[in-house]
Amino acid sequence: MRVTVVYSPAPREVREWLLEVPAQATVSMALQASGLGIEFPDVDWKAAALGVWGRKASLAQPLREDDRIEVYRPLLVDPKLARRERFRKQGARAAGLFARKKK
Q: Which residues cross the membrane (predicted)?
């Protein structure tokens, strides 16, 4: 069975492994077969957030043919906080429904 493991160690940089795994393989087995832990020893993939095709997954989740396993990096900034800061810098009149439009 073919699966793909994807990891992005930095912004705009993506590493991808195409693997052949047994029919009853799990996410954990695919991550071990990918060599992710060898190439990126600082990543604790057992504690990292994981997904299969963008949906949250566990290490014990069984895989299907052509699944894409994604290993997510932790967020550096809370997205809600970043949006509030951008809005604060823009000002209330420059954004949203009440923005003053130039004619």
A: none
Query: Which residues 6+ apart lie within 8 Å of 63 measured at CB?
Result: 1, 3, 21, 25, 26, 27, 30, 52, 69
The CATH architecture assigned to 2-72 reads Roll (3.10)
CA distance 23 to 10: 32
Whole-number CA gyration radius for the chain: 20
**Short-list 49, 45, 42, CA closest to 33:** 45
Q: 33-76 pLDDT, tens per residue? A: 998 888 888 888 778 899 999 999 999 999 999 999 999 988 88
Q: How far is CA 76 from the centre of its chain?
A: 13
Structure tokens at 2: 């073919």
Q: Are 95 and 87 in contact (CB under 8 A)?
A: yes
